[in-house]
Specification:
Elements: H1 14-23, H2 27-70, H3 79-94, H4 99-102, H5 114-117, H6 124-142, H7 157-176, H8 183-190
Length: 191
């Protein structure tokens, strides 16, 4: 006579414990199963997310480096360099296609910082630079609502006229100060 209970199944083995846990799961088991099930789709998309995030951070660092390069330090503040820098900023704003392009440069910092402007020799040239910085800052603020997003970034003709007025004023003052017109501007006029 064989006894069915003679060799009971091993109730302490790994498979027995797993079977018991799946029949009556604890909260820990439910969480582990949910994490395991979620990990599969996440593993498919995670590399794309990581590379996109890394690219965004790299782009941001590059933009920050470019912005720092655009700002002249006070030790390099040479009067003949300010007008070409300002003309580049006018051009950048005229070609702006996004809010970031429009407000890329601060006209209250860098060369336009009050302490930097005070280093310029007193006279019509330094007054014109200070006025241009103020005008550019005001244009930037006054017309910022014309470019709220990349899809809706169309500046008015008034904004362009004001920028052109700053450019014209800068070129006149630059010429009167007997500095050489920047090469890029000469090249554009020749075309």
């Amino acid at each position: 006579m064989t006894n069915a209970h003679a060799n009971p199944p091993d109730e302490t083995g790994l498979w027995a414990r797993l079977r018991r846990e799946l029949r009556n799961p604890s909260m820990t088991t439910v969480i582990l199963i949910a994490v395991a099930v979620s990990a599969v789709p996440l593993a498919v998309f995670a590399p794309g997310w990581v590379s996109t995030t890394q690219q965004s951070l790299d782009d941001r660092r590059a933009a920050d480096r470019l912005r720092e390069a655009q700002l002249l330090s006070s030790s390099v503040l040479v009067p003949s360099q300010i007008v070409p820098w300002m003309l580049d900023q006018v051009e950048r704003m005229e070609e702006a296609e996004s809010p970031a392009d429009w407000s890329f440069t601060s006209f209250t910092a860098g060369p336009c910082f009050e302490n930097n402007l005070q280093q310029l020799p007193a006279g019509a040239f330094s007054d014109a630079i200070a006025k241009s910085c103020t005008d550019m800052h005001e244009i930037q603020i006054d017309h910022a609502d014309e470019c709220i997003s990349i899809q809706n970034c169309d500046f008015s003709s008034r904004a362009m006229e004001r920028l052109d007025g700053v450019r014209t004023h800068l070129l006149i003052v630059f010429d009167d100060a007997d500095f050489v017109i920047p090469y890029r501007t000469e090249e554009q006029q020749a075309e």
